[in-house]
Batch of 2 targets.
Target 1
Amino acid sequence: MLATNLYGMSFSHGIFSLPLLFGTFGPTGISQSSHRHDTTQHNTTQTQHSRIVSTLITFRMARNLGGFLVLFLAISICEAASIFQPISDSHRSAALELFSPTDGSFGSLEETYEALRTFEILGIKKRPDISAASCQSVSETLGSSTSSLKDVFHALKVNSILKCKVNDETFQGVAKRLKAVLNDASSLLDFYYSIGSLVLIKDQNSGVDVLLHDADGVFRSIKALSQSDGRWRYSSNNPESSTYAAGLALEALAGTVSLASSEIDQSLIVTLKNDIVKLFDSIENYDDGSFYFDEKLVDAREHQGPLSTTSSVVRGFTAFASVTSGSINVPGDKILGLAKFFLGIGIPGNSKDFFNQIDSLACLESNRVSVPLILSLPATVLSLTKKDQLKVKVNTVLGSSAPPLTVKLVQAFISGTKDSSVIESLELKFDPETAVHFLDVLPKSVDVGNYKFVFEIVLHDSEDKSVYATGGQTQVPVFVTGLIKIDNAEIAVLDSDHGSVETQKQLDLAGENAVSLSANHLQKLRLSFRLATPRGNIFKPHQAFLKLRHETKVEHIFVVGNSGKQFEIILDFLGLVEKFFYLSGRYDIELTVGDAVMENSFLRAVGHVELDLPEAPEKAPRPPPLAVDPSSRYGPKAEITHIFRSPEKRPPQELSLAFLGLTLLPLVGFLIGLLRIGVNLKNFPTSAVPATFALLFHLGIAAVLLLYVLFWLKLDLFITLKTLCFLGTFLMFVGHRILSHLASTSAKLKSA
Amino acid sequence: MSKLLIFLTLIPLLPILTTSFSPENPSSRRVLVLLDDLALKSSHSVFFNSLQSRGFDLDFKLADDPKIGLHRYGQYLYDALILFCPTTERFGGSIDLAAILDFVDSGHDLIIAADSNASDLIREIATESGVDFDEDPAALVIDHISYAVSNTEGDHTLIASDEYIKSDVILGSKKIEAPVLFQGIGHSLNPSNSLVLKVLSASPSAYSSNPKSKLSNPPSLTGSAISLVSIVQARNNARILISGSLSMFSNRFFRSEVQKAGSPTKHEKSGNEQFLTELSKWVFHERGHLKAMNVRHHKAGEADEPTIYRVNDDLEYSVEIYEWSGTSWEPYVADDVQVQFYMMSPYVLKNLSTDKKGSYFTAFKVPDVYGVFQFKVEYRRLGYTSLSLSKQIPVRPFKHNEYERFIPAAYPYYGAAFSMMTGFFIFTAVHLYSK
């Protein structure tokens, strides 16, 4: 049940047009539940038809105040017109996709029934085989005395399709139990399930006594739950009335009538027929001619979407119509509207919706009141050049053939201009082989363009008129397309002052062009061409753009206007320099001409013009920033390697060694000099003490020099200075002793 | 008392129970779908089913449901948001423009589908994301040259486009053969926004205008500048998909056969399903989400990471990069990952080699400039989440004793000094004792 509880589901048909306005007031002070009502704009459900812009705005005026005012306001730009296609093969393939069993069954019996019934209606032979598992489930449900009414009901429904082997005793037992339930039933669902089940037993096993002896009583107790506006309550202690329940009630009442052992009181039937009429008074509609039922009171728990609500009413209504004689006063166009509603949904994406749609359409297809006929066009885009035929199909909702009839093209007018009709009253021929009504050639008065065709179905047999609902006139948008002739295309550069032509080139807009022009800001560029329809009339396309693109990708677009017979645009560069941002240089010229009804729409590079514009003044506007190519923003960067400082230049080693030799030369010279002057050590002290001091003094000097060498090689400054400190003191001492000795010796010599 | 005990024991389990968005598991899991109409659930079921079959938990709500909210008690309830409610003027509950922007700012994903009658609210959300829808509310993208051939749609607003962005990460590696059907409004990208990308663009002949009214001024959007579907990857790696058409997600378009005008091939199925499924994989971080880990560097021949490098050291750098596949982290393979050795500007920028198992490595010499450097990996690629790694490391100059000794060029100086010293020593002896 949850799956069906789609809140506020409603479907539009691609087109909303005339303002749709309705307000609803619920019973006051009953529901405090929150009210949510959504509007829909749902363009995709329609299988294939033109889509026209629409706007739908919801205003929620009041909520939780006991009374609700819901205002739906649909504003649209264009008029309503749409076509509905009957059920086709795409539904069949979708059905197989949607109803695919898992582990050999569809889950619950209800889902199994929905799947089987859908396959049955659509005539799908290759359905998955699930009879073994389902039949077992059916017999289990029917055999058990504790299974719920709803399960019994659905089990019987599955059985009606699968024809499982269920023995008579089981049926007897179930029938007995159902009758017992029926006797003290008080809620609508009890009635619905028990009566529904009894009807199913009657159809499946004629040996079981299912007839109701007190049919009138049952009828009255169900009727007692009805409301004055044609809706029903679920039970006597639940004051809320629902449209969905009305459908269930009608189906139960239909069952009661068929189960009655004696004729039901006719007055009851008559009041019920009035109720149905009242119920149909509350029908809601979209402006494309489709009708639907929706719950007026929106309760989150019990609420059913428009699809299931409408579906329930249709089932109940058709069931009741089939068991009663006499007419029910429901207009045929409402029935047709209901069919359009279901067809307008297209192919629903969930199985419950799909079943509701198909089952309701099947009910409508075979209903006794009026069978809707759907007029559809296989193609609404017709080519004048290819001489396409206008084809119209008339089918029942499930796509089976219609009774003998003629389709009349009442009127055709250019959309937007309602008064000027191009065709009046044409009868379409019928091709019995393909069951298509067609118009051989479109009349001369139909040129390329966007038309609205108005069709009418005329039934041949006057008896059929009471059986079928044709819905009067049907308006269909039709596009008549064709090849457009282009000629007199030329491009010219004009002198501004005199208007004299400086250069002029002919263009072939059907082929390639590569004109090259040059102009300065004092000149003008003129481009002109002429368009004609296949019928020779002037054609005005929706899109006629001239695009100038500068080398720097700055683009300028101009709409080419039409002056009488031909399309012409004159670009006065003097007035455009600012717009062109004073950018001189090459401009590529591109011409685009296109229209929905033009089969040879084109985008053509015409050539280029070399523009010589004045220098930009300081305050000139800058060209807008251009979109950057995303790939340039990403991608790896160039590698960077660090350039290391190169080592300083050094002289070759030989040179250093040569200079080393040179630096040693003075020492050698000094030594030779010493030898030459005959140095000796005769002054060296001879006595032991001064000689020791002399030795120590020189050793000390040698130690200091050695310390320097060590400092150079490895020692640091601190150790060196420390050591030097000691050595220095030592040197001072021994130096003083030896020097004073030497001094005294030399003084003695002098004095001697 | 026992209930309390059970409760207390369950509390530590809570983080395990919630399978939500996290750096370790970046796919969105819980998705809020806001609809104008619950019928969309049925008419767009193929798209939703494909999401559900990939493990997403979709929560369908009406856009004006008064109970909806994106977060509660400071926690986001959802990882992603799908806005299939083009006409909604105001959301119900606590959701508004600011809430949605906050949602994206905190790294969550968003899909917006607008339509011809898109409300100001939806337009504003799109504008905040960096795209501008055509301001004319009645405008549709029209293309008289590359439209989809149809027997019943004659106004050329049903466009068959195959001008996709060239990126395997966004649209999957499998080529989309059939054109994508589009019917809706066009938008342009804000040129100053560098994060937004055109995924599906219109053909050069397209323009955006009201098909019912005559054109007197050039339309504001024309040609390939019209974007039909765009994506945004924010700096926090939140991803947004913006489409000007809600119907392109519908079952009808998914199943529809398509023939582009002027092309002889008729495809049995439009490219919509593949295009949007692949794109939704990207948006929901099932593809193109990278993570980097185990950044290591050391001197050549050593294993430990030093605290400082000396100029001219040889070093080795390695990083591991993985891509999220929707279920697990797979090694990321590319040849354009680069590392920078950076101080104010890159001194070294080098491509990383890969072992195709996710590890990227290289070796280089520290420049002869000292200071505080960074190892930087700035990996920004189309469609991938950006990686931005940086690791600081100082570089010192040579110590005084690390320079070269006994340079041959200095031999003359050495010789001079030593000869001087030798001479001095001899001189002292000679001077004192010579007679």
Note: Confidence is low (pLDDT under 50) at residues 12-20 of chain B.
Target 2
Amino acid sequence: MRYVDEFRDPDLITKASDEIRRLANPSRHYRIMEVCGGHTHAIYRFGLKDILPENIELIHGPGCPVCVLPMGRIDDGLAIAKAPNRIFTAFGDMMRVPGAHGSPLEDKARGTDVRIVYSPADALEIARKNPEKEVMFFAIGFETTAPSTALTLMSAMSQGIDNFSVFCNHVTIVPAIRAILDSPDMRLDGFIGPGHVSTVIGCRPNQWIASVEGKPVVTSGFEPLDLLQSIVMLLRQLDAGEAKVENQYKRVVPWEGNRAALKVMAEVFELRPYFEWRGLGFISQSALRIREKYAAWDAERRYSVPETRVADPKSAQCGEVLKGVLKPAQCKLFGKECTPEHPIGALMVSSEGSCAAFYNYEYRKSQLTSISAMA
Amino acid sequence: MCLAIPGRIVELISGPNEVGVVEVTGVRRKVQLGLLADDMPVVGDWVLIHVGFAMSKISERDAAEQMHLLSMLGETEQAMEEVRGYGLGERASDDIGHHEAPTRPN
């Protein structure tokens, strides 16, 4: 296991790993999904796979907002921004993500005023400082970022900043989990619940996964020990035939979530009837749109949107990887046509996508090993 | 990415919005505090910051552990780039687009 010396409490790591081996029934194969892209990244970075018994398989979930954003939304956002006197603002992660007609960075090279912001509040500030321009913030993210966008829109209204709008791509995590669970080829035994999303929504929204679907959920922190302890908690439930929601990340996640954040989200957003997810297709009530009250700041109402549809290439098997039916390297395109440099499927788009994480941490290493073996 | 950045509140700024100054390993930037309206932090409190908004109050020990986690994940530089980037809108300079380090939505 990598970086083991840096870990806090190496004794506890050993204990947790021993406990996992004790609890894992050797005649059973466990498939556990970590929902959050941050967890996926941490699992690869820390090489946790190396210390888990072989019959515990971690399936990497849909919790990377950049990955699941349909390409057509990028094209739509950039089409709006092309008009004169407009400024397109987005987080840095979006800049290199390709739409069918190129990425925001490529459009910047073609003359669109594209700017990176680190906070939606800064996009609003750019609008305040540039009253002669129309500033659009390309909003993405799960419930961790949605409250910040909501509060920014409330500020735009209260300060009367009318040259600002939001192109809203916020999605909600629970319907995506539901879509995966509803799939006939789903094979999951339990979930490592998202960490920072849960600081906002709390643990309650996951309760149906336990009570209706009969799958245990443990909300987890991001450190190696957090993740191992969460796996212990899941195995204990599975061993006892239980399915409940537990919170391993109590030091940060309150059971009820952040009520102030939920309140501003409810003030500004409502559920869309449906939204497309790359790799998963259309999922009902899985995304947020801006309420009528804030229509003046909603880019989709304010501007004409081309509604570009870009179908996922049929050869990319992102959906199967998301559901745990295939491992990243089992997709026909993995490492050949589809690489982090030239992503074809959703999960290769961001470093938190399961294919990109696997490529960067496992595949490259194995390629290097085979090259050095040949030398 | 889901990872939040820990910071210590060093100043509360009065005005129409709830804004405070946080310090993250020596770098001071303004962050929005409105999402902690139910439990406003005071000077000296530690918070987890996400896209320029304080999301939750944490203990000093958890803040140190979160910083350690970022360093173990090799993300300290990215996190600091993000923190240094807060407030770019206030400066509204023409070269904003030249900062191309990724930040963390989600």
Note: Chain A has a mean pLDDT of 92.
